[in-house]
Amino acid sequence: MKPAYVASHKVPDLAAGDSGTASLLFQVLSACFAAAEETYTFLRWPHRVSGIQAGIPPDLVCQEGQVFCQQRELRWKSTPRGWDLLYLGIQPPPDFFVPLAGEWQWEDREADLYGSQNRETRFPKPLSHPQDLKVGQRYFRDERTARVHFIALIPR
Questions:
Q1: What H or E segment, with its residue span, contains residue 18?
Q2: What's this model's pTM, rounded to 2 decimal places?
Q3: Which long-range contacts (CB under 8 A, 24 or more apart) does 130-138 make?
Q4: Segment 55-79, tens digit of pLDDT
């Protein structure tokens, strides 16, 4: 296991509404992910999911989602007070993130998108994703408790 970074950040709800708050979320994503990085996005609403999409879409108005690349994953969830963000990475997050208590370590594991090998799926409908995308999982474990607390997706 190697040292990892697990941190959080809160984006407050703005009086300007969803578009202003979503703009702040997009600014945080821009601070975490370089434009040249190969990134993937997965957005969730109560009634549907986006599937895995290449890149970061300009419209992030959804209740929760995640963006991931080889080095990090950023998750967010809408709350009545704004957005709660979680950073999982093998490189330090931007300075405005607050580290979560723990002695974080990471380890990569193999994974497979259901349907990519044998067209079998466990979802009610097939999950859309780029056909050439191969994924892995990164386990984030607290050395003090020896428990895996988070599992992030990574492109392979």
A1: helix 18-32
A2: 0.87
A3: 130/40, 130/52, 130/53, 130/54, 133/40, 133/52, 133/54, 135/111, 136/108, 136/109, 136/110, 136/111, 137/108, 137/109, 137/110, 137/111, 138/73, 138/88, 138/90, 138/106, 138/107, 138/108, 138/109
A4: 988 777 788 999 999 999 999 998 8
